[in-house]
């Protein structure tokens, strides 16, 4: 029989109101709040990072095949290269690649309602996916791609429509820039749909149209493209897959750039969020541990007489110390359990109720996102329990200093 554990359980079940009981309740409450804050913080930060990444990936994919440029951040291909169906097939069949889409990006000016708006048009083919999901909100109809010629339809961001006081179904004039032509081509186009990502870098600067329209206005060959958009199944392997594709299939001057190369400042900002998460976890864990250690110290001092009795009955110091260690672990476990319930409950409340609202212009989303995974919660709970247990060893050492005679006199 584990006597120290038996005694610890009996002490924990004692409902007698004492000063130490009050302190332990405060420490338990602090642990509950600390664990809940840690779970909620990690879920929000991870959700925030995932949402931003998805918004970037849904529009640009995970990697791009373009003509080599000393500035990977430039997504405008001023020079074309021929669409190679065999190359596309090889990349699509590469391990880890989900899909490949050719496209062209060209600058243009939109003229509507006595207003002008500079924009970059992304010309895509008929199989390019554009549907409403968690990362991008799509309204209206997709572009209808005719069998011959090109579609005179365009999809703009909702923010662009708002700035130009336009709506789906309106007609606009689009002026295209073409170095090969003295007079810029002008086309009348119909707005068939709108999209919204919440990211100014995308919403403010891009529209979507038929790739054949951009070839026509740029005097490019019928097979010319600016780039290949590559989507992978696991974004964390995008860099490795891009390197493999470059070494296996590409010949200069073609090169591969990941989305991190194109928008380095956004992904650096996302990586910095990990620092914030670590700081929150460390602070909350320290708060929980200090509160539990303080409560244990007060509890030991209040139980000095009991310590004397146990020692007088022959219990070794290590066993007495284990008794209070078990008791502290039970209290910490209780705080962690209810903290987990509270933290997960708050995450679910935010996920379904979107209680915490954000400024979309600053945070790229209207509500704080939640990404809750069971192993996040398990690591937080286990780490907190271990950290609190280790810290609580320190106050339990006072048991070894208790004198039996003096302890038995203590009341």
Kindly describe this structure:
The protein is α+β, with helices and mostly antiparallel strands and 411 residues long. It has 2 domains: 196 residues, no CATH class; 183 residues, no CATH class. It is 52% helix and 19% strand. It contains 14 helices and 12 strands. The strands form 2 sheets. Strands 3-4-9-6-8-7 form a 6-stranded mixed β-barrel. Strands 2-10 form a two-stranded antiparallel sheet. The radius of gyration is 32 Å and the shape is elongated. The two termini are 29 Å apart. 35% of the residues are buried. The model has no long low-confidence stretch (mean pLDDT 81).
In short:
This protein has helices at residues 3-13, 19-60, 85-92, 158-163, 200-203, 211-218, 238-249, 259-262, 264-302, 304-312, 317-353, 360-363, 374-396, 404-409, and strands at 63-67, 81-82, 97-112, 115-124, 137-140, 153-157, 171-176, 186-196, 206-210, 224-225, 227-232, 254-258. With 411 residues, the chain is α+β, with helices and mostly antiparallel strands.
**What characteristic shape results from the CA principal axes?**
elongated
The percent range for strand residues is: 15-25%
Q: Helices and strands: which structural class?
A: alpha+beta
Distinct helical segment count: 14
Radius of gyration: 32 Å
- Helix and strand element order: HHEEHEEEEHEEHEHEEHEHHHHHHH
Structural domain tally: 2
Instruction: Tell me the span between the first and last alpha carbons.
Output: 29 Å
Low-confidence stretches: none
Number of strands: 12
Largest sheet: 6 strands, mixed, barrel
- Tell me, rounded to a whole number, the average pLDDT: 81
Strand order of the largest sheet: 3-4-9-6-8-7
**Share of helix, binned:** 40-55%
């Amino acid at each position: 029989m584990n006597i120290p554990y038996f005694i610890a359980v009996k002490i924990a079940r004692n409902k007698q109101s004492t000063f130490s009981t009050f302190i332990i309740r405060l420490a338990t409450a602090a642990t509950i709040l600390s664990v809940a804050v840690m779970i909620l913080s990690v879920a929000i930060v991870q959700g925030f990072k995932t949402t931003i990444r998805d918004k970037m990936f849904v529009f640009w994919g995970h990697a791009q095949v373009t003509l080599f440029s000393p500035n990977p951040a430039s997504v405008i291909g001023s020079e074309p290269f021929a669409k190679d169906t065999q190359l596309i097939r090889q990349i699509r069949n590469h391990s880890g690649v989900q899909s490949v889409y050719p496209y062209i990006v060209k600058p243009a000016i939109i003229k509507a309602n006595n207003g002008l708006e500079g924009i970059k048009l992304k010309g895509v083919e008929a199989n390019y996916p554009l549907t409403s999901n968690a990362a991008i909100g799509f309204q209206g109809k997709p572009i209808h791609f005719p069998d011959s010629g090109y579609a005179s339809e365009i999809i703009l961001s909702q923010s662009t429509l708002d700035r130009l006081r336009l709506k789906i179904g309106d007609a606009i004039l689009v002026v295209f820039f073409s170095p090969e032509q003295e007079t810029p081509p002008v086309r009348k186009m119909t707005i068939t749909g709108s999209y919204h990502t919440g990211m100014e870098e995308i919403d403010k600067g891009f529209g979507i149209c038929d790739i054949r329209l951009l070839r026509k206005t740029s005097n490019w060959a019928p097979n010319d493209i600016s780039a290949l958009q590559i989507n992978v199944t696991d974004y964390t392997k995008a860099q490795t897959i891009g390197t493999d594709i470059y070494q296996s299939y590409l010949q200069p001057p073609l090169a591969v750039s990941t989305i991190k190369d194109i928008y380095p400042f956004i992904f650096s900002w996302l990586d910095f969020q990990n620092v914030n998460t670590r700081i929150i976890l460390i602070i909350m864990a320290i708060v929980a541990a200090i509160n539990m250690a303080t409560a244990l110290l007060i509890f030991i001092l209040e139980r000095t007489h009991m310590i004397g009795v146990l020692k007088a009955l022959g219990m070794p110091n290590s066993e007495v110390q284990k008794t209070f260690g078990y008791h502290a672990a039970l209290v910490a476990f209780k705080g962690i359990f209810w903290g987990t319930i509270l933290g997960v409950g708050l995450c679910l409340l935010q996920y379904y109720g979107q209680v915490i609202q954000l400024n979309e212009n600053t945070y790229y989303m209207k509500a704080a996102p939640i990404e809750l995974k069971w192993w996040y919660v398990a690591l937080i709970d286990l780490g907190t329990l271990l950290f609190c247990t280790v810290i609580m060893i320190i106050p339990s050492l006072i048991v070894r200093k208790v004198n039996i005679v003096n302890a038995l006199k203590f009341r």
